[in-house]
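subagent[fold] <- orchestrator: predict structure for attached chain, return tokens only, no commentary.
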Amino acid sequence: QVQLVESGGGLVQPGGSLRLSCAASGSIFRLNVMGWYRQAPGKERELVARITSGGSTNYGDSVKGRFTISRDIAKNTVYLQMNSLKSEDTAIYYCCAGVSASALNAWGQGTLVTVSS
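subagent[fold] -> orchestrator:
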């Protein structure tokens, strides 16, 4: 089994930045894909960003150009740098991991990001 622990959420003003981290432990040898999804109140969970062990990335349309995902293979950790934050970025952000993008079987508990003045 894989355990994912997120950190870095909090309250930030519009236009500000935050960096989320997600550390993986357990049976991590098959974690080809790691990423972030988010869910805002009353909305469905949506893709924020994904990254493969080879460094290929995918971003949700709403965050392209503002968010950057990166991965430290040695530390089994994935990061999400969020810049130019908007109120509509307010959501619970979930870290996820799996063998492929269609098999993201491990999920973290979520970390709340609130963008408000």
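orchestrator: received. Logging for downstream: The chain has no helices and eleven strands. The mean pLDDT is 94.
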